[in-house]
Amino acid sequence: MSELYELLWAPFVEFGFMRRALVACLAIALGAAPVGCFLLLRRMSLMGDALSHAVLPGAAVGFLLAGFSLPAMSLGGFVAGVAVALLAALVSRYTAQREDASFAAFYLISLAVGVLLVSSRGSPVDLMHLLFGSVLAVDDGALLSLAGIASATLLCLALGYRGLLLECFDPQFLRAVSGGGGPIHALLLVLVVANLVAGFQALGTLMALGLMMLPAAAARFWARGVGAMIALAVVFALCSAWLGLLLSYHFDLPSGPAIVLTAGAAYIVSLLLGHSGGLRRRGAAAA
Amino acid sequence: MSALIELRGVGVHFRGHWALEGISGSFAAGQSTCIVGPNGGGKSSLIQLIAGLIPAQRGTLLRHLPRSRIAWLPQLANIERGVPVSALDAVCLGHWRRVGWFGRIGPGLRRAALDALAEVEMAEQATAPLHSLSAGQLQRVLFARLLLQDGELILLDEPFNAIDARSQALLMRLIDRWRDQGRTLIVVLHDLPLARAHFANTLLLAQRCLGWGPTEQVLSGDALERAQITAPGADAAARRIGIRAA
Q: A169 vs B78: CB contact, 8 Å cut-off?
């Protein structure tokens, strides 16, 4: 029993930085996983990827102006992410190109600008920090902002739930009955950016999407309803954060990749064993 | 009869071409009209224009009823069936006018949704997810949603596309009932015999209005021929996918 305690819980009791990291990841999981579910159901998973890269130049500008200050970098990242989402929406609206193409274009530009900005002034270590995060170094201020973003996200999702759901499976009906689906689409994109900014503090811009999309994709293989899918995604995200941090601690691995890989393992297992559209069902149907 | 929807020289520009041009006329309250015409002739555009989903770039459209009294059936292809939503939950959204974005869908409203499902013979599939339903079954679910919407004006965009004969017969009975209740119906159809049998009025549309009036006159031989020969919509459709019309 005590061995199990040593393995699974002691690191968090012993070390303040582990506790902070755990709380940070829990906050990210609570906000990001439900947002990921809506993104997945909207078939916009890859746009989340694009947006996560779009956060980088804003964070870099914050870094150049204020040094390694999380509030400055977060604000910059948020502004840059929303700007790219807006630009992509405008381009798809006023040209023949679809939204995913314009997203891809803008995120590539953003990523290059971001890397250029950081490397022009900062060191390679700074760049690594921005790209891959440092969950073991979050301070109280960062924790408060993560908790704030998670709370605001859950509140927005609760209020916008019906509209978001309709936007997923019958967007035109939503426009017909409510007079516009635009605000709901915008709400989703703003929530995605806000949660990516939250995630990037801990996991870096490249991994921030991990706790958003992987738990959602894994949950889709089990859940029969949207509510269950969201609940399950949150559970997957919470467990991935906890186990990932333990792996990182016991085996001396970088924490961001350890967490995302744990979430990835949950996805693979769900893909193989899940009963809602997974491989097992296909196998059963073929037999 | 008073006009419910009036069109005055309406034009809709869509992806670089005019989907509709110079449409004038009115849909009277209580009248049932079907819209026929070639593919790309602007039938769906007209329906979406009336529903308020797309704007008119030319002319004016007057609605003499609140938008909330319009019930609109989208084409089946617009429904994303991968979302894990049950038939009952989908039907419950027909209560939107009563519950809006935040209102609770209580037991009474759920009961009404179940009754609507029973009317389209889908009560047994109430808890089935949308992806498990056939096209005909999904269309019946969407009709149950229309029942709850209780629209004064009902817009149906190709309600019988790709659905089985049994579902079609069942849904046609509902449409007839709505007509007999005095609701205003505007229905996009491909099936001319069906149009002749069930709709008093027909609008023949191929970008422009080629005929609008009593069905037997509009669907006479030469009006149809004109629609086939001129069929500018077909050319536009070909242009859109990059084929030059011969």
A: no
- Set out the domains of chain A in order of their start, with CATH numbers: 2-276 (1.10.3470.10)
Into how many domains does chain B fold?
A: 1
The per-residue pLDDT for range A37-69, each reduced to its tens digit, is 999 999 888 888 888 888 888 888 888 888 777
B85–chain A nearest CA distance, Å: 6
Mutate which: B15, B85, B92, B130, vs A, most A CBs within 10 A: B85
Name, in order, each residue with C-beta under 8 angstroms of A186's C-beta and a sequence gap of 6 or more. none
Question: Measured between beta carbons, which residues in chain A are less than 8 angstroms from residue B66?
Answer: none
**Any domain includes B36:** yes
Residues B189-228: b if buried by 16+ CB within 10 A, e if exposed: beeeebbeebbebbbbbbbbbbbbeebeebbeeeebeebe
Partner-chain contact B84 A224, CB within 8 Å = yes
pTM for this model (two decimals): 0.86
Domain assignment present for B22: yes
Q: Is residue B41 part of a domain?
A: yes
In the 8-state DSSP scheme, what is residue B83? S
Identity of the residue in B67, B79, B100 whose CB atom sits nearest the CB atom of A169: B79
Give residue B135's identity as a one-letter amino acid code: A
Residue B108 lies in a domain: no
| ipTM score over 0.85, yes or no | no
Orientation angle between helical segments A45-66 and A124-132, nearest 10 degrees: 140
Name, in order, each residue with C-beta under 8 angstroms of A226's C-beta and a sequence gap of 6 or more.
A37, A41, A165, B83, B84, B85
Q: What is the pLDDT of residues B75-93, one digit of tens each?
A: 888 888 889 999 999 999 9
Tokens of A192: 């995605």
Strand partners, B11: B58
Look up the domain containing B52 and give its range.
Answer: 1-65+153-161+183-246
DSSP A207: T
